[in-house]
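Translate sequence into structure tokens.
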Amino acid sequence: IPLKVDLGTYEALLECYEEGKREDCVVALTLEVEAERPMTVYSGHLRLAEPPEPLKKLVRIDVKPVADLIPIVKLARGQRIVLEAYAKMGVGREHAKWQPVSVAAYKYYPRIHVLREECGEECRECAEACPRGVLKWEDGRLKVVDELNCTMCRACEEACPDIVRIGWDDTKFIFKVEGLGMIPVAKVIEVALRRLVGRLDRLVSVVGEALEVGETGARVEGGGG
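Result follows.
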């Protein structure tokens, strides 16, 4: 069951995780339901349990399912379920269940060049050839109405090679991220960039230490000669 957290809770859990205190980066949710008639138990029946002391001292903990109608189990009349579930902090490289996004990809920033706007009926073929509705033929003119929706398939260019040219802007690109509702996409990107900068800082440090060792070794060898 995917869970969502507020930003304060996420920062507290992330800090706990990065400090290596993984046993403290756990939040429990409880569920207790008894069926008076046949029923389905949903994620909305889960309740947040008392958080561990290390987390309580940091921030007000708020963890809940991303949706209330995710089925968990069906109960017959008279059946009862009691459980305790544990939400653990983790990262996507350890397991896909901790990935906060379903898509993270980039593509070229398209540029559509209309060589002849006023081209009569032949422009209609250009507009109709586009599967994404990027081009529109109106009043004898060909117009670009949604350039960023272009996938650069070049169907319009193939239909009208003398009227349309497809290219791209090599100073830009389109970065697309689709979240799963756990944390805001902007926060996902911020944390990813922060971790990337941290890795680069460590790389600079390691390379610097290696260069210092190399220079020291060279001086010792030179002095001994």
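Note: The chain has five helices and eleven strands.
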